[in-house]
Structures are given as C-alpha cells and as structure tokens.
Write a structure and sequence with these properties.
Elements: H1 3-27, E1 37-46, E2 55-65, E3 72-74, E4 81-84, E5 88-93, E6 96-100, E7 106-107, E8 113-114, E9 120-121, E10 138-140, E11 145-148, E12 151-155, E13 158-161, E14 167-171, E15 174-177, E16 181-183, E17 188-191, E18 193-195, H2 201-237
C-alpha cells in the first residue's frame, strides 16, 4: 500500500468520525441543555528520509464542545431552571459529581431535587438540595438561592470547570470536569426557563452534505487506486 493510499484512508476515517459527530448533533437538536460538538482534525507528519518527501496525514480524534448559549425557553414550571452565561449545574451520579446544563428538575419521594434521570442536584457545597414543596411557593433567585414561603432553604450549585479544556462529555448532556470546578461568578439562574440545544440544524445538515460529498470523492479515489494496483499486478504477472 503506497503513501497516497495511507493518506486517503486516514482522511476517510476522519470524515467518517466527523459525520458521526454531526449526526449526533442533529439527533439532539431538540434535547434540553445539549451542547453541540465539532470534530477537530490533527495533522501528523512523518519523515520518510532524506530521499523522500514527508508524509502528512490528518485524523479527527477530538470532539470539541461548543459553548454558545442556547435559546432560553419559558416554561413557567417553578423547578425548571436555566443558566444565563457560563456555568453548569452540579449533579451527583453513581460515577461521581457531574456537570449539566439541562435544568428540568423536580423533587423525588424524599423531597430532594433531582434531574430527569433521578440524579440529585447539588448545592454549592456539594450536598443534595432539599425542596420542601409543602412549605409554600418555591422561589429561586438569580444566584440560585431557594426559598419556600418566606424561608431560605438552600442554594443551587452553579460551577465552572477549573480547566475548560479538561471538560469532557460523558454522554448526552452530562460532562466531567477532570480538574475540578469553581463557583461560577457571572452566571444567572432563571426560574421557569429551560435552555434549548445550541445546535443549528440547518448548518449541521449543510455540513453533513459537505462531508458526505468529500467522503464520496475520497472513496472514488480509493476505488481508482485499487484498480490501478490490480492492473499493475495483472500486467507484471503475465
């Protein structure tokens, strides 16, 4: 297999991975709190020796999360929350503390505030948030403070990763901050709102078509290269 074929194969692999990223974005364009991803390509250059030109190959092994604010949609539900600005809600999962922008919350049978998957929402200190639903109307301030009736009962934890580049997606709308978190200073919590996905379906579909055409061109090159090699082998075998 010659260098041109190796380079084409790495390109095809990268395009296939990018197509998977785009398809996941499109599938989650209506998912509350979802943040779109984009594939990042890295170039690898190999020195083939003094008598040969270097070989350059590209791979797409990193999915970068886009941090643009999604549209804030008013629901009126007192425990639906959205974050305006940077920051994430802190939740407790079986795997440990995780971050999310999906703020569709509600109380469980014990009165603890949980997300749609039943994971406890945490306060600024990392403890579960208890919501006394029978104590009066629930009010949540812009800083995340919770009051029931006229009594202050807790505060929603809103955090930012210490290292934004160390933020990795665990699945869906859940993220892991490998280097820990800090309190978010400039975020505002909005009660009765949910943040929509920040995916732009029109742009994603257009990009999907572009990537599909690039993949088809690469496949056409590989088919022709395969036929060329077969022809050479048949000729030499005669």
């Amino acid at each position: 297999m010659d260098n041109a074929t190796y380079a084409a194969l790495t390109r095809q692999t990268g395009l296939l991975q990018e197509m998977q990223v785009i398809a996941n974005n499109v599938a989650n364009s209506a998912t509350t709190g979802f943040r779109a991803e984009q594939a990042l390509f890295a170039e690898h250059v190999s020195n083939l020796g003094a008598d040969f030109p270097s070989l350059s190959m590209a791979t797409a092994r990193i999915a970068n999360t886009l941090t643009a604010q999604g549209v804030l949609q008013q629901t009126g539900a007192p425990l639906d929350l959205a974050i305006e600005g940077e920051g994430f809600f802190l939740i407790q999962t079986p795997q440990g503390e995780r971050l999310t922008r999906a703020g569709h919350f509600g109380p469980n049978q014990n009165g603890d505030l949980v997300n749609a998957d039943g994971h406890a929402v945490l306060d600024a200190g990392g403890a579960p948030v208890f919501v006394p639903v029978d104590a009066g109307p629930i009010k949540i301030g812009a800083d995340g403070t919770i009051s029931a009736g006229n009594q202050l009962v807790g505060q929603i934890g809103v955090v930012v990763p210490v290292n934004p580049l160390g933020l990795s997606r665990e699945g869906g709308t859940v993220f892991v901050a490998e280097d820990g978190v800090n309190p978010a200073e400039n975020a505002r919590v909005l009660q009765g709102y949910l943040e929509a996905s920040n995916v732009n379906p029109t742009l994603e579909i257009a990009r999907m078509i572009e990537v599909q055409r690039a993949y088809e061109l690469g496949q056409s090159f590989l088919d022709k290269e395969d036929e060329r090699i077969r022809t050479v082998m048949r000729t030499l075998g005669q």
